[in-house]
Amino acid sequence: MTIGGSTAAAELAAIGPWATPAAGITRAERLHRIERARGLTETMGADALLINAGASLRYFAGVPWGATERLVAMLLPVRGEPVMVCPHFELGSLQADLLIDVDIRLWQEDENPHALVADALAGMGVRRLAIDPALPFQMAERLRRAAPGVELVDGAPAIDGCRMRKSPAEIALMQQAKDMTLEVHRRAARIMAPGITTTEVKRFIDEAHRAMGASGSSFCIVQYGRATAFPHGLPGEQWLEEGDLVLIDTGCTVEGYHSDITRTYAFGKPSDEARAIWEVEKEAQAAAFAAAVPGAPCESVDDAARVVLAKAGLGPDYRLPGLPHRTGHGIGLSIHEPAYLVRGDRTPLDTGMCFSNEPMIVVPDRFGVRLEDHFYMTEAGPRWFTQPQPAIDRPFA
């Protein structure tokens, strides 16, 4: 039995560390990324690229720090050694995390780190600086004042140009994360029982991810019944009842790389309407996958899903009942990252790009169905990371 019949304790007792962990990203791969970023920065007419703390700094330098109010950033010139700007008191932690060689420039708490960056820019002769799109506006403005002779431009073509196309090593890490989450989904379905709360299910999912070796759940949405009609749920506790739809959207990270999988299934017998909408959702997800042809614009995948919905009398566009959001998003070190499967994103689909495929259908104030699996692009076309859900009462292949 795939839905119900077990307990959280029994399922957790059966889980152990992942048996075949993927290899981490090598230093050689990081150096290759840096050289590619240099080339893309030069192509866009800039002399250097400023990479802020967060996913992009982890991507290039291996430093897994989130951005805060303190400036931590790497200045990457088109030619020359990278410069890392960091608070003085963080030096030991920085050295422990760094996976490439850099010139470290430190600042004390009462000093202006943007002036430190300006000095480095002057020493490099930088006149045009590409800025990480994730750098906060306030920091960019402070840098502009500290270096008035330097033109600041959007660095997205360089950063996204690197991060959008995943290497085989990145895809292997993402495959592990997604396999872990799919297994957690399977076990979560088994613990469903009348009266189980959404909090109990969330707690189980987090503990199960940790038991497998992931750093817990990167996020977890659990919805029952009417709450499934709200894409990111409703506040407050919910209790499972016979006949409810269950929607669980969750993921974890492995070496920083994300999974993000959604299953929607019936606890008990679904209504005829819910079953019919579920089938349309499955057809839309399949149409989106089939439309992911190498070289096609990202928006064409969204278009393909919406054609299926329109034929079923849903929508059109973002109208409800129908699909209220984009069909999918890029994924990697950020759970949502460029490119996007949405009207207006004309980025050509290319080898190594990774996407969610989740053309959710919402029937307002009644129920919603989201089936979310991910695929990656190969030269021959898209390939699933995880196999889609077979049926409303059978969540797993």
How is the secondary structure organized here?
Elements: H1 8-13, H2 27-43, E1 48-52, H3 55-61, E2 73-77, E3 83-87, H4 91-97, E4 103-107, H5 113-124, E5 128-131, H6 137-146, E6 151-154, H7 156-163, H8 168-190, H9 198-212, E7 217-224, E8 245-254, E9 257-258, E10 261-266, H10 272-291, H11 299-311, E11 328-330, E12 337-341, E13 354-357, E14 361-363, E15 367-369, E16 373-378, E17 381-384
Parallel strand pairs: 1-5, 3-4, 5-6
Antiparallel strand pairs: 1-2, 2-3, 7-8, 8-9, 8-10, 11-12, 13-16, 14-15, 16-17
Helix pairs in contact: 2-7, 5-6, 8-9, 10-11
Secondary structure tally, helices: 11
Largest sheet descriptor: 6 strands, mixed
Low-confidence runs (pLDDT<50, min 5 residues)? Answer: none
Strand order in the sheet with the most strands: 4-3-2-1-5-6
Quaternary organisation of the protein chains? single chain
Q: Determine the strand fraction and express it as a percent band.
A: 15-25%
How many strands appear in the DSSP assignment?
A: 17
- Shape summary: globular
SS content category = alpha+beta
Question: How much is the average pLDDT?
Answer: 97
Rg over CA atoms, rounded to whole Å, is 23 Å
First CA to last CA: what distance? 13 Å
Helix content: 25-40%
The SSE order reads: HHEHEEHEHEHEHHHEEEEHHEEEEEEE
